[in-house]
What does this fold into?
Amino acid sequence: MSEILGRVGYNGVAVEEPLDSATLAVVKAYLVYDQVARIRVRRVRDALGHLQAFGLGPIGELQVREVADEEWLETWKASFKPIRVGAFLVRPTWSDADPGEAIVLSLDPGMAFGTGLHPTTQACLRALSRIDVARMRVADVGTGSAILAIACAKRGAREVVAVDIDEVAAREAKENVARNGVGIDVGVGSASDLVGTFDVVLANIVAAVLQKIAPHLAAHLGRGGRLVVAGIIATEEDEIRAAFAGHGLRPVGREQEGDWVTLELTR
Ligand code: SAH
It folds into this structure.
C-alpha cells in the first residue's frame, strides 16, 4: 500500500501504526489538488483493487478527503507538543505554553522534534538540569539543533562553543541560537577543532564516533570538569567506559532509559 500511495503522494507517505494489534495500520498520502488529482486517485483505487486480487487482504476502503489549507497548518502545528524535561520546557516558536518555573528552549520541528525529543537528548537535558553550568565554559560536540548548547547558555554558562561536522546542522544551529537570543559560538567541526579547555563537555553522538573522538574530548576537558556522553546503546557501554578510562576519565553518573545509556565522566 505504501508503494502504491507513494507513487502519487507529495513527499512520500505516512504510516500510522496502531498501538494495539486489533486495529489496522493506516497509510496516508497527501496529493496536490491539481487537474490530475482525480486521475491519480482513480489509479490508486485500481492498484489497491489489484492488490486484493492477489489475496493480500484485507486492506480496507480507500478514503479520500479534501484538506483545507488552514486546517492542514493547524493540524501540523498541533502535532508538536511542548515537552517538559528536567529544568526545561522545549516548545515550538509559535507555542505560548506557560513555562512556569521552567527554562524555555524555543525550537521548531526539524532536527529537535521528531515525534518528541530523542531519549538521548532528554537524558542530556536532565544531566544539564543537575550539573550547575552557571559561569562555566561549555563545549557541545555534535550540536545538531544546538538544543543542549542553548540549554547551557540559558542556564548561565559563561561561554558556549558548539560544533557539528554537518554544515546543514551548523546552519540550523545558528538560526536556533539567534531565535533564542543567546550568544553561542557555532562552527563546523568536531572535538579536534576545539580550542582550550572546558568545564563541561557534551557529546550526544553514537558510540562508534565517541570512541573515535575520545582522545580529543578528554584533552579539552579541564581539571575537575564534567564530560557528558550519550548515544550509547547498553551493549556498547563497557567499550565506551574502557575507551575513556584509557584517557583517565571515570564515570561519576549514569542514566539508562530503555536501551540508551548516558554517562557523566570526570578525571
Ligand atoms: N546534540 C543534539 C544533536 C545530537 S545528533 C542533541 O542532543 O539532540 C548528533 C549530531 O552529531 C549530528 O548533528 C551529527 O551531524 C553530529 N556528528 C556526527 N559525527 C560527528 C563528529 N565526528 N564530530 C562532530 N559532530 C558529529
